Amino acid sequence: MIKIPNDFRDIPIPEPVTRSSAADYHQVEIDLDGLANRQPLIDVREYGIACKSVYSRPYAPYYRAFSSALEGVFVRDSVAQKLIQVNNVLLDYGAEVLALDGYRSVQLQTELWNHFMSRALEQLPEASRGDLEKFASLYCSNPSGYDPEDFRTWPVHLSGGAIDLTLRSLYDKQEAFMGSIFDDADDISFTTHFESTKLTSQSGIEARRNRRLLYHTMTGAGFQNYSFEWWHFDYGSQMWVKNGDLQCKALYGRTELGSDV
């Protein structure tokens, strides 16, 4: 086995800069008149990036397809370009990114929000409405107050700057073991879960190594991770600014397929 110098899989994932949830980014201002916000949405497959549109097929944990889900995974052009950079780094590891979800319509966001509110009620049957929403907001932006004229109501996946993804082998296309399934509403999905847990199994060690590889290659390209989901990264969105504690406006506001917003 060839030893990779400064192997990302050996470098711990740091504690997040902030512990902000999907309920905490909405006050971040957006450069709505900037050139970046005019970038179109791109299907990542056009750039040779592997894609598995998780909401268009009956994958776990939903086991059903969402009628409003898109077949491809769409992101802003600069986001797609950065994923190419990530793949170039991953070549040395015999891996590539596998895009799971990007741009979402408000309709799909609403379906997902309702799912996580149901999960919240299952886990916290005696909780108040506010506590249920707080739980659901760990895993989903609340679209219930959406107003196309008010940036403070826009779900982050509407920006085209949010991307959900994992890793897979370049050789047999097998997905890397990450220790939890996508969209698992549990603290095992927290990015540093295997950093803060004493590991006694090879499966835990493998999950930690793979999460480290995904984290370091993505952040090295300028993305910010959402600390409650190992699979969620942002570039240019309000959450990108919030989670990185950046001193700038967000680059991307809401967009739609086929539009230059």
Kindly list the characteristics that best describe this protein.
five-stranded mixed β-sheet, 5 helices, Muramoyl-pentapeptide Carboxypeptidase, domain 2, 261 residues
What would you say this structure looks like, in words?
The protein has 5 helices and 7 strands; from the N terminus they run βββαβααβαββα. The protein has helices at about 75-90, 105-125, 130-135, 200-220, 240-245; strands spanning about 40-45, 50, 75, 95-100, 160-170, 225, 230-235. The protein has one domain: Muramoyl-pentapeptide Carboxypeptidase, domain 2 (2-Layer Sandwich). A hairpin with a 6-residue loop joins β6 and β7. α1 crosses α4 (about 200-220) and α2 (about 105-125) crosses α3 (about 130-135). It is of the alpha+beta class. About 25% of the residues lie in helices and about 10% in strands.
In short:
The chain is α+β, with helices and mostly antiparallel strands and 261 residues long. The chain is built from 5 helices and 7 strands. It has helices at residues 77-90, 106-123, 129-136, 202-220, 238-244, and strands at 41-43, 50-51, 74-76, 95-101, 162-169, 224-225, 232-234.
CATH architecture, please?
2-Layer Sandwich
What percent of residues are in strands? 5-15%
Q: Total number of helical segments?
A: 5
How much helicity do the residues have?
25-40%
Shape: globular
- Average pLDDT, rounded to a whole number, is 95
Q: Give the total of domains.
A: 1
Radius of gyration: 18 Å
Cα-to-Cα separation, first versus last residue? 49 Å
